[in-house]
Amino acid sequence: VAPMARNVWANAARCTAVSSFVQELAEKVYRRRVDRILNGVDMSDAPERPSPVENVRRLVFVGRFSVQKNPAFLIDVLAQVRGMNWQLTMIGDGPLMGDVRTRIQQHALAARVELRGWCETADVQRVLGESDVLCMPSLSEGLPVAAIEALKYGLAIVASEIPGVRDVLDPQRNGFSVPVQDVAGFARALDELLGDDSRLTAMKRASCEKARSFELGVITDQYERVLREAAAEKRPVA
Q1: Helix, strand, or coil here: 158?
Q2: What is the model's pTM?
Q3: Can you list the positions of beta strands (E) in 11-155?
Q4: Tally of CA atoms within 13 A in the half-sphere of 143 that contains its CB
Q5: Residue 206 CA to chain centroid, in angstroms?
Q6: DSSP character for 63?
Q7: Contact at 8 Å (CB) between 59 and 86?
Q8: Backbone phi, then psi, for 232, in 5-degree steps?
């Protein structure tokens, strides 16, 4: 496939990538200009403001229970945050579900962690709308759609320090970026965030503001511009 892919990239009128990270990779590998156009989200039904911060902090994890998404690690982290009043909802399923259940039992967290499995879109949106923090301990990401949806509903984000989340997370503004697999670091970030009502509220508002750059109309306008520019270019006939 590689020779075909290189030929396509070399001869395409224009190339786009859905995140800064993918853009950098593509430009490095294919040695040509690549336009970054982020994944978009429909903001027409977005809440006017994020949900208020309540006494019980609502955490959420959304994604396949796979090695890449690192779900069992999150249970180990939360076992270090027992002093805070939190509840975690995990949406998704996959090969590591057994590991997650085992960690929950080992840490005696069954009363604080709800495993929803895969949910309908409306159910996912309802959970996000009621939550405060998206936990994303992934080992790698391109541009996680779950994080864009979290911005739409005004969730602060605590995520691994990986290139794929740079477009959704401004550290110290709408969340925290923590070194990959750093249990103590994730626990400290959650302790700091969950223990400060005003800071959590400010970060949730910052996520709402950041969501505007992913608004679907803005994204489609960017694609239209690129397509019009490509169509206007005079290219040799093969």
Answers
A1: strand
A2: 0.92
A3: 16-17, 35-36, 57-62, 86-91, 113-117, 133-136
A4: 22
A5: 15
A6: S
A7: yes
A8: -85, -15
Sign of torsion over alpha carbons 221, 222, 227, 233? positive
In angstroms, the CA 228 to CA 231 distance is 5
Q: Residues with Cβ < 8 Å from 162, sequence gap 6 or more?
A: 138, 139, 140, 141, 180
Query: What's the CA gap between 135 and 130, in Å, rounded?
Result: 14
Q: What are phi and psi of 223, to 5 degrees?
A: -65, -40
Q: How many alpha carbons fall within 13 Å on the CB side of residue 126? A: 6
Could you state, in chain order, the average pLDDT of each consecutive group of 10 residues for the chain (238 residues)? Answer: 90 94 94 94 93 96 98 98 96 98 98 97 96 98 94 98 96 98 98 96 98 95 95 73
* Exposed / middle / buried, residue 121 (Cβ in 10 Å: 0-12, 13-18, 19+): exposed
DSSP state of 80: T
* Amino acid at site 210: K
Task: Pick the closest to residue 127 from 51, 214, 185, 181 (CA basis).
Answer: 51
Beta strands 86-91; 113-117: pairing state: parallel
List, in sequence order, every beta strand (DSSP E) within the chain. Answer: 16-17, 35-36, 57-62, 86-91, 113-117, 133-136, 156-160, 175-178
Q: Which backbone phi and psi does 234 adopt, to 5 degrees? A: -85, 120
Dihedral, CA atoms, 44, 115, 50, 37, nearest 10 degrees?
A: -50
Q: Hunting for tokens 């853009």 — which residue is that?
A: 23
